[in-house]
């Protein structure tokens, strides 16, 4: 072997870099293998961060338009796509550059190239200067996921996945989003604010699956104007690239009979793990049929000195989950007795308004036959939301009927994502409705609505409008 390490991390997304940095901080000699020239993986390069740079811009544009009602008009926005793209690239560059600095400061050896196991203690990396073999005592697989492509979709630059959509080459007149999940709806928000008309097609019976239906209703009411057609319980069965556009055929309850024409088609039908592309069998690591790698609560695979974390180990495929799993794997590799033991993992759609949820939803509680007490606080009663001119939202908390402990919560409204962490903390701490209701929240804030929702559940906040 060319070089020997305590830990080799395969993949430098949020899971991989967090694991590498924690392992180095614990005194281990670490290599971080990444096929792309920058660190940060999907999240920083083509996921969370660039999408939020564009979504923030879109939210400001929408907000500016609403200011006319406050007596201040900005007129029609003048959109310079080149500049917007540069802004987004600058945001990504700042963060990925920061990671490179953090790796260097910790003496983490960054090896750029495609890596694969060649044995239970060796990973071979194809770098631009040839093959390099890294020997390891422990390895952490953090190779992430990639977007699923519909098998019948032809190669055409007008048919993109989220990575293609983030390039923002142009603004189409008419755009189809295949898949009504968070990623599709976030990208749709950006393109619609920039001027595109949207259609969305979803196989299931509602958009933003996983979120509480009450929350989604509010989002949908505020966003209906972006869509010409919301096709639920409908399948995309054919895509044809023609000179005059992309023609798409649908099947199902709300399917148009004739093929429809689009200028841009976004495939957002889910992500599939990279478990099958890393030579796992050479190290004896088991990989499931769909490419996920099974692990225990210490993030160990069936081969005890090889760990796996992040999107490649399963749902939810979210950056904050990957980071925490990365820390656990690194700590265990360093000899600590850590376990991944999160009770809940929050989800956020950074749309306008934002939709955020954590723990049980009302539907899930019902399905489990669990008796709950609900506390709903409508933002129409929040001074801050009214002052912001954005009082369409609400905060909803669910408590166990018997113990009064919080088991779930959801927020729809501006900044919902920034607030849901408090609900996650309350669940992790086993807080009950009095704990939350008696916690003094600053006034006037949107966060107050969390305390108020708990008081509604207690029955002590009865003076709602
Ligand atoms: P990844 O980020 O996928 O990183 C894996 C890395 O491994 C990649 O850099 C890849 O190049 C590298 N790699 C793979 N195989 C090899 C190999 N053989 N050799 C060398 N390198 C290899 N999550 C959120 O929490 N919040 C959000 O707002 C959010 N927004 C998103 C928006 C979009 C458009 C997308 C696509 C995703 C979004 N996600 C979001 C999901 C988030 O990006 C992922 O959950 C997260 O990146 C997973 O981290 P990871 O470390 O498991 O893997």
TrEMBL record:
MF-aspect GO terms: dihydrolipoyl dehydrogenase (NADH) activity; flavin adenine dinucleotide binding
Co-factor note (free text): Binds 1 FAD per subunit.
TM region(s), chain numbering: none
EC number of this enzyme: 1.8.1.4
Catalytically driven reaction(s): N(6)-[(R)-dihydrolipoyl]-L-lysyl-[protein] + NAD(+) = N(6)-[(R)-lipoyl]-L-lysyl-[protein] + NADH + H(+)
Enzyme class: oxidoreductase
Cofactor: FAD; (R)-lipoate
One of the GO biological process terms: 2-oxoglutarate metabolic process
Keyword Oxidoreductase applies: yes
Alphabetical keyword list: Disulfide bond, FAD, Flavoprotein, Lipoyl, NAD, Oxidoreductase, Redox-active center
Something else known: The active site is a redox-active disulfide bond.
Family the entry assigns: Belongs to the class-I pyridine nucleotide-disulfide oxidoreductase family.
Name of the protein this chain belongs to: Dihydrolipoyl dehydrogenase
Species whose genome carries this gene: Pigmentiphaga humi
Gene of this entry: lpdA
Residues of the full protein shown: 131 to 595 of 600
């Amino acid at each position: 072997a060319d070089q020997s390490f305590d830990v080799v991390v395969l993949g430098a997304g949020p899971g991989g870099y967090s694991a590498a940095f924690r392992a180095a901080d614990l005194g281990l000699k670490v290599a971080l293998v990444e096929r792309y020239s920058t660190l940060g993986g999907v999240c920083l390069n083509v996921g969370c961060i660039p999408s939020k740079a564009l979504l923030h811009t879109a939210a400001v544009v929408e907000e500016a338009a609403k200011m006319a009602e406050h007596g201040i008009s900005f007129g029609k926005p003048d959109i310079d796509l080149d500049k917007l793209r540069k802004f987004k690239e600058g945001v990504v560059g700042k963060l990925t550059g920061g990671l490179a600095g953090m790796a260097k400061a910790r003496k983490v050896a960054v090896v750029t190239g495609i890596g694969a196991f060649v044995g239970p203690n060796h990973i071979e990396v194809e770098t631009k200067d040839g093959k390099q073999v890294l020997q390891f005592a422990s390895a952490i697989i953090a190779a992430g996921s990639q977007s699923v492509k519909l098998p019948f979709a032809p190669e055409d630059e007008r048919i993109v996945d989220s990575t293609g959509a983030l390039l923002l080459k142009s603004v189409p007149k008419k755009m189809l989003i295949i898949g009504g999940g968070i990623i599709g709806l976030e990208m749709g928000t950006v393109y619609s604010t920039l001027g595109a008309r949207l259609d969305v097609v979803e196989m299931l019976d509602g958009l933003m699956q996983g979120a509480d239906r009450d929350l989604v209703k509010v989002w949908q009411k505020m966003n209906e104007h972006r869509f010409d057609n919301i096709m639920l319980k409908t399948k995309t069965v054919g895509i044809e690239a023609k000179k005059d556009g992309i023609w798409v055929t649908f099947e199902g309850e709300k399917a148009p009979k004739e093929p429809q024409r689009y200028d841009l088609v976004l495939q957002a039908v889910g992500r599939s793990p990279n478990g099958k592309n890393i030579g796992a069998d050479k190290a004896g690591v088991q990989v499931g049929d769909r490419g996920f790698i099974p692990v225990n609560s210490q993030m160990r695979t069936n081969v005890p000195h090889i760990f796996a974390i992040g999107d490649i180990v399963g749902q939810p495929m979210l950056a904050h989950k990957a980071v925490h799993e990365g820390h656990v794997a690194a700590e265990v590799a360093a000899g600590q007795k850590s376990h991944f033991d999160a009770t809940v993992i929050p989800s956020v759609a950074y749309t306008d308004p934002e939709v955020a949820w954590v723990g049980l939803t009302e539907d899930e509680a019902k399905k489990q036959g669990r008796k709950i007490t609900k506390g709903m606080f409508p933002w129409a009663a929040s001074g801050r939301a009214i002052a912001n001119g954005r009082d369409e939202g609400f905060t909803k908390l669910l408590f166990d009927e018997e113990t009064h402990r919080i088991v779930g919560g959801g927020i729809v409204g501006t900044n919902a994502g920034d607030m849901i962490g408090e609900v996650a903390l309350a669940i992790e701490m086993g807080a009950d409705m009095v704990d939350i209701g008696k916690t003094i929240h600053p006034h006037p804030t949107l966060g107050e609505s969390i305390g108020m929702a708990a008081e509604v559940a207690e029955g002590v906040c009865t003076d709602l409008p």
